[in-house]
Structures are given as structure tokens and as C-alpha cells.
Specification:
Low-confidence stretches: none
Number of helices: 13
Mean pLDDT: 93
Shape: elongated
Radius of gyration: 26 Å
Distance between the termini: 56 Å
Strand content: 15-25%
CATH superfamily of the largest domain: CinA-like
Number of strands: 17
Structural class: alpha/beta
Helix content: 25-40%
């Protein structure tokens, strides 16, 4: 590998990652944070727990990049693989680190410094030499994320501070292609075509990443993109949609309740995964069977017999029955066919019916979500969250306008 000054490289270690038993979450997190700082990322390398291969990878990457950020291997004891391998790869001896409140010190590569770990017992390692640096961090995601601010503080001077200014717009309800088309067209209209645009898609949601050489240019580009995307933009921070919707419910002083069939509680889980959700979540009912719809929500048996459990009359009755039985201001119901079986010619897999009811009326619509079972469920959760968000913006009338029949 040839030397490429001015870039960072991420090195992820762990045999469980190489075999596919565990998915890497640290690499994408580190790449995102480095990019936010304006530091180009040359790549993400994953290496198993093999001393020889790990030594070669560390030595090669340290010579090739200005910064190497390494995740994995650091444990709470002094006999883990990472420390001696680091020393060997960097060509320095392994020495005792500073005292740790009377406990035996962790060994460090000579010239290395510990990085405090506020969420765990194993400190990280910072090693700098000749204008280059390596940061070794634990593989536990919440420990790594808590240590990142200190790594960022140490890394910034290596690159002369941020070289690009960046903005994020998170959208919901548009395809990746449509989001990119709208943003690029808006930037061209404002003579901002040189601004970097990146999009990354999630089920029913797309993130827009903008980068520019000056904060003024970035502000103009963000405003242009915002105008092109309208109320599909739900935040310009990294907050998830459930948090944004929860914050909006809290500001409005409203509580929500959920009645779920095909999503099996995933919508309620999305709401309650956010700290402080008790401020705005009243209850959730998983009415998976027809009997549960009748007994817990008051859906008439005849309605199910006539229209089927996956139908707009039943979804409407689910939402209205839940609102009448709860202390919520808004009730959301979801019923559908997540697959892979259960679909028909009239109601194929991915058919999902949603209803939202509140003091200003009831909205109900049938959606068709593509993908396998987990994706249909996730798309349905995202759609339901967006319905609540849009109701808070414009009520049932706004939902009828945004999602016309047919």
C-alpha cells in the first residue's frame, strides 16, 4: 500500500467479524465521525484475531495513512493480543503504562499514551510518531463512542482542523433516487453544483450529506436542499425519526398509543427505545390474532368476517377502539401481511393498512411495502412514525392532503 498523506484508515479486529457471526457497527460509526471532521477515509479493513496478519495490517496502514483508528482486542486485562502486536508492528518495545489507582498498569507501546475510557475498564492507546498517529480503542460500541471525542481532539491537529464543512438532512417518505434528483437540481439552480452530495438510504428514509469548502456555501446549499425536499426533512441532526417524533409529541403535550398486528410491537418498541418516552407514550397493544382485535380493541367480529383483518375498515376500528380505551390523544393502528407467506392476488405480501385517529378525525390508508419480512416491518414502523409526525404538523386534513386516496 502506497503512502497517502492526509487520510485516515479504519482497522477493525475480531474473528467473529471475519466469519460473519457478528456485524461491524464500529467501522461505519468511525467513518461517519471522521467524515464530519472533514477527514477523508481511505478504507475500512477487517482482520481476524491472528497475530501475524494483525501485525502486518497495523504496520502497513500506519505507514500509509496519517491516522489509523483501530477497534477491537483491548480488554480489561493486561494480557490481550492487541498491545504486544501494536508494539511489534510499530517497532517499539512494550513498556509499563502509568499507575491506575493502585492497580497494575496496562502495558503500552513505548511512546504511547492512554486514552481514558469513561464507560469501561480498558483504556485506549494513542501513539504518534513523525506526523502520524494510531488510536487503538475497545471493540465494545458504547465504550468506543464514549472515547471518540478525545480521539477527535487529538486527531484534528494532524489534519490542520476540518478541511470541509458538512451538513446532514434526514428525510422520510422519498426514494433515494428522488432525493438525490431533487437536491442536485436545486444546487444547480443556485450555482452550487460544486458542493459535494452524498445520500444513504434506510427503509423509507434517506440521509443527505452535504460538504462545502466554506460555511457560507454550505449554508446556501443546505437551504436549497431543504427547499427542494420540503417537509420530507424531519431533522438536520443525527437524531432518529422516533426521537424527533417523540420530541414533537412532548412539545405538543400529547400522548400516543399503538395497536399493532403485523409489526408485532416494533412500533411501540421504536417509541420506547428513546429515553423519556414515558412523557408521551400511553400504551401499546399487540393484537396479532383476530380474537385480540375483538377483545382488546373492540373491533366487531362481523367487520373482520366481511372485510378481513387486513383492511381499512378493520384498521380504522382498531385505532378508534384503542383511542376510546386509552388516555392517549393520538392512536395509531397497523395491520398487514409482512410475509413471506399469507399474501393473495388482492392483498399481496407487503400490503399494510394504517389508521391514525385523534380529536380531529381518523385517517386511514393502504400502503404497499417492498422487501422481505424484516424490511416490510421496518418500512411500516417508519411510515407509522411519519404519520404521527405529519399529524402533529397538519392534523388529519394534512394527512389526507399528503396521502390522497389511490
Amino acid at each position: 500500500m502506497h503512502a497517502t498523506p492526509g487520510v485516515a484508515h479504519i482497522l477493525i479486529t475480531g474473528s467473529e467479524l471475519v466469519t460473519g457471526r457478528v456485524s461491524d457497527v464500529n467501522g461505519p460509526f468511525l467513518a461517519g465521525r471522521l467524515s464530519e471532521m472533514g477527514i477523508p477515509v481511505a478504507g475500512i479493513t477487517v482482520v481476524g484475531d491472528d497475530r501475524e496478519r494483525l501485525t502486518l495490517a497495523i504496520g502497513t496502514l500506519f505507514r500509509a495513512a496519517t491516522l489509523v483508528v483501530m477497534s477491537g482486542g483491548l480488554g480489561p486485562t493486561g494480557d490481550d493480543l492487541t498491545r504486544p502486536v501494536l508494539a511489534a508492528a510499530l517497532g517499539v518495545p512494550l513498556v509499563a503504562g502509568p499507575e491506575r489507582d493502585g492497580r497494575p498498569p496496562y502495558p503500552l507501546p513505548q511512546g504511547g499514551e492512554p486514552i481514558a475510557n469513561p464507560k469501561g475498564s480498558a483504556p485506549g492507546i494513542w501513539f504518534a510518531q513523525g506526523g502520524r498517529a494510531l488510536a487503538a480503542l475497545p471493540g465494545v460500541p458504547w465504550e468506543l463512542r464514549a472515547m471518540w471525542p478525545e480521539v477527535a481532539r487529538r486527531a484534528a491537529p494532524l489534519f490542520g482542523g476540518a478541511t470541509r464543512h458538512r451538513a446532514l438532512l434526514r428525510t422520510v417518505g422519498l426514494t433515494e433516487r428522488e432525493v438525490e434528483r431533487r437536491v442536485r437540481a436545486a444546487l444547480e439552480r443556485h450555482d452550487l453544483a460544486a458542493v459535494e452530495v452524498g445520500v444513504s438510504a434506510k427503509p423509507l428514509a434517506v440521509d443527505v450529506h452535504l460538504a462545502a469548502a466554506s460555511p457560507d456555501t454550505l449554508a446556501l446549499a443546505a437551504a436549497a436542499a431543504r427547499g427542494a425536499l420540503g417537509d420530507h426533512v424531519f431533522t438536520e441532526t443525527d437524531a432518529p425519526l422516533a426521537q424527533v417524533v417523540g420530541d414533537a409529541l412532548r412539545r405538543a403535550g400529547k400522548r400516543v398509543a399503538t395497536a399493532e398486528s403485523c409489526t408485532g410491537g416494533a412500533l411501540s418498541a421504536a417509541f420506547t427505545a428513546i429515553a423519556g418516552a414515558s412523557d408521551y407514550v400511553d400504551r401499546g397493544v399487540v393484537s396479532y390474532s383476530n380474537a385480540a382485535k375483538v377483545e382488546a380493541l373492540g373491533v366487531p367480529e362481523a367487520l373482520i368476517a366481511t372485510h378481513g383483518a387486513v383492511s381499512e375498515p378493520v384498521a380504522r376500528a382498531m385505532a378508534e377502539g384503542l383511542l376510546a380505551r386509552s388516555h392517549a390523544d393520538i392512536a395509531v393502528a397497523v395491520t398487514g401481511i409482512a410475509g413471506p407467506t399469507g399474501g393473495t392476488g388482492q392483498k399481496p405480501v407487503g400490503t399494510v393498512v394504517m389508521a391514525l385517529t385523534a380529536a380531529d378525525g381518523t385517517f386511514c390508508r393502504t400502503f404497499h411495502h417492498m422487501g422481505d419480512r424484516p424490511r416490510v416491518i421496518q418500512r411500516s414502523v417508519t411510515r407509522a412514525l411519519d404519520l404521527v409526525r405529519r399529524h402533529l404538523l397538519g392534523g388529519v386534513a394534512g394527512l389526507e392532503r399528503d396521502f390522497p386516496p389511490g
